[in-house]
Amino acid sequence: MNETQNETQAPDDRTGLVDADDRALQVRAQYEQVEQHVLGRTWTLPELAIGFTNDAAYVGRLVLAAERTWGIDGDVDAELRHKLAECLWWVFVLADRLDVDMPEAYAATMDRIGDGLERTLRGMGA
User: Fold this and answer.
1) What is the top-level taxon of the source organism (predicted)?
2) First vs last Cα of the chain: how many Å apart?
Protein backbone atom coordinates (compact mmCIF):
# COMPACT_ATOMS: atom_id res chain seq x y z
CA MET A 1 0.00 0.00 0.00
CA ASN A 2 1.44 3.40 -0.91
CA GLU A 3 1.62 6.27 1.57
CA THR A 4 -1.32 8.18 0.12
CA GLN A 5 -3.67 5.20 -0.07
CA ASN A 6 -6.31 5.02 2.65
CA GLU A 7 -5.99 1.85 4.73
CA THR A 8 -9.67 1.01 4.21
CA GLN A 9 -9.48 1.60 0.48
CA ALA A 10 -9.48 -1.35 -1.90
CA PRO A 11 -5.97 -1.88 -3.38
CA ASP A 12 -7.21 -1.34 -6.95
CA ASP A 13 -9.32 1.74 -6.10
CA ARG A 14 -7.20 4.61 -7.44
CA THR A 15 -10.09 7.05 -7.07
CA GLY A 16 -11.32 6.37 -3.54
CA LEU A 17 -14.82 6.04 -5.00
CA VAL A 18 -15.48 2.36 -4.29
CA ASP A 19 -16.72 2.98 -0.74
CA ALA A 20 -18.87 5.90 -1.90
CA ASP A 21 -20.31 3.73 -4.67
CA ASP A 22 -21.11 0.94 -2.20
CA ARG A 23 -22.78 3.36 0.21
CA ALA A 24 -24.84 4.93 -2.58
CA LEU A 25 -26.16 1.52 -3.59
CA GLN A 26 -27.00 0.67 0.03
CA VAL A 27 -29.10 3.83 0.25
CA ARG A 28 -30.68 3.07 -3.13
CA ALA A 29 -31.72 -0.37 -1.82
CA GLN A 30 -33.49 1.38 1.06
CA TYR A 31 -35.28 3.69 -1.37
CA GLU A 32 -36.35 0.64 -3.38
CA GLN A 33 -37.98 -0.84 -0.28
CA VAL A 34 -39.95 2.37 0.24
CA GLU A 35 -40.90 2.55 -3.45
CA GLN A 36 -42.05 -1.06 -3.43
CA HIS A 37 -44.23 -0.37 -0.40
CA VAL A 38 -45.67 2.93 -1.68
CA LEU A 39 -45.82 2.33 -5.45
CA GLY A 40 -45.83 -1.44 -5.67
CA ARG A 41 -42.70 -1.20 -7.83
CA THR A 42 -39.31 0.47 -7.93
CA TRP A 43 -38.43 3.46 -10.05
CA THR A 44 -37.58 2.83 -13.69
CA LEU A 45 -34.32 3.96 -15.27
CA PRO A 46 -36.02 6.98 -16.92
CA GLU A 47 -37.53 7.99 -13.57
CA LEU A 48 -34.10 7.77 -11.97
CA ALA A 49 -32.62 9.89 -14.77
CA ILE A 50 -35.32 12.53 -14.29
CA GLY A 51 -34.59 12.59 -10.56
CA PHE A 52 -30.93 13.22 -11.34
CA THR A 53 -31.58 15.97 -13.88
CA ASN A 54 -34.02 17.68 -11.51
CA ASP A 55 -31.42 17.78 -8.73
CA ALA A 56 -28.64 18.83 -11.13
CA ALA A 57 -30.79 21.70 -12.42
CA TYR A 58 -31.42 22.81 -8.85
CA VAL A 59 -27.65 22.96 -8.32
CA GLY A 60 -27.65 25.61 -11.05
CA ARG A 61 -30.15 27.70 -9.13
CA LEU A 62 -28.16 27.24 -5.94
CA VAL A 63 -25.03 28.50 -7.71
CA LEU A 64 -27.01 31.57 -8.76
CA ALA A 65 -28.12 31.98 -5.14
CA ALA A 66 -24.52 31.66 -3.96
CA GLU A 67 -23.64 34.48 -6.38
CA ARG A 68 -26.64 36.47 -5.05
CA THR A 69 -28.43 36.57 -8.41
CA TRP A 70 -31.23 34.20 -7.37
CA GLY A 71 -33.01 34.24 -4.06
CA ILE A 72 -33.79 31.12 -2.06
CA ASP A 73 -34.97 30.52 1.46
CA GLY A 74 -32.56 28.81 3.80
CA ASP A 75 -28.83 28.19 3.98
CA VAL A 76 -27.40 28.27 0.45
CA ASP A 77 -24.12 26.61 1.44
CA ALA A 78 -25.90 23.77 3.24
CA GLU A 79 -28.25 23.28 0.29
CA LEU A 80 -25.32 23.24 -2.15
CA ARG A 81 -23.51 20.61 -0.08
CA HIS A 82 -26.67 18.52 0.06
CA LYS A 83 -27.58 18.78 -3.63
CA LEU A 84 -24.03 18.21 -4.88
CA ALA A 85 -23.78 15.10 -2.71
CA GLU A 86 -27.19 13.98 -3.93
CA CYS A 87 -26.09 14.44 -7.55
CA LEU A 88 -23.05 12.28 -6.89
CA TRP A 89 -25.40 9.67 -5.40
CA TRP A 90 -27.56 9.77 -8.53
CA VAL A 91 -24.47 9.23 -10.72
CA PHE A 92 -23.57 6.08 -8.79
CA VAL A 93 -27.17 4.82 -8.96
CA LEU A 94 -27.49 5.48 -12.69
CA ALA A 95 -24.08 3.94 -13.39
CA ASP A 96 -25.12 0.82 -11.50
CA ARG A 97 -28.36 0.51 -13.47
CA LEU A 98 -26.43 1.00 -16.73
CA ASP A 99 -23.68 -1.48 -15.76
CA VAL A 100 -20.98 1.19 -15.71
CA ASP A 101 -18.15 0.67 -13.21
CA MET A 102 -18.06 4.28 -12.07
CA PRO A 103 -14.76 4.20 -10.13
CA GLU A 104 -13.03 2.62 -13.14
CA ALA A 105 -14.76 4.94 -15.63
CA TYR A 106 -13.80 7.99 -13.57
CA ALA A 107 -10.16 6.92 -13.29
CA ALA A 108 -9.90 6.18 -17.02
CA THR A 109 -11.61 9.44 -17.97
CA MET A 110 -9.43 11.57 -15.68
CA ASP A 111 -6.32 9.82 -17.04
CA ARG A 112 -7.39 10.51 -20.63
CA ILE A 113 -8.28 14.15 -19.92
CA GLY A 114 -5.12 14.72 -17.86
CA ASP A 115 -2.91 13.23 -20.58
CA GLY A 116 -4.56 15.43 -23.21
CA LEU A 117 -4.11 18.53 -21.09
CA GLU A 118 -0.45 17.69 -20.45
CA ARG A 119 0.10 17.47 -24.22
CA THR A 120 -1.71 20.78 -24.71
CA LEU A 121 0.33 22.50 -22.00
CA ARG A 122 3.59 21.16 -23.45
CA GLY A 123 2.51 22.47 -26.85
CA MET A 124 1.90 25.88 -25.28
CA GLY A 125 5.36 25.83 -23.72
CA ALA A 126 3.90 25.79 -20.23
Assistant:
1) Bacteria
2) 33
H/E stretch holding 118: helix 102-123
Residue 12, pLDDT score: 63
Worst-scoring range by mean pLDDT, 39-43, 51-55, 73-77, 109-113?
73-77
- In whole angstroms, give the CA distance from residue 57 to residue 48: 14
**C-alpha angle 116/121/126, rounded to 5°?**
165
* Nearby residues of 56 by Cβ (< 8 Å), 6 or more positions away: 87, 90
Multiple choice CATH, 18-108, 3.80.30, 3.30.420, 1.10.10, 1.10.287: 1.10.287
Break the chain into its structural domains and give their ranges: 18-108
Q: Compare 35 and 14 and report the one with higher pLDDT.
A: 35
Please list, in sequence order, all residues whose beta carbon lies within 8 angstroms of the beta carbon of residue 88, skipping any fewer than 6 positions away: 20, 24
Nearest-angstrom CA–CA distance, 56 and 51: 9
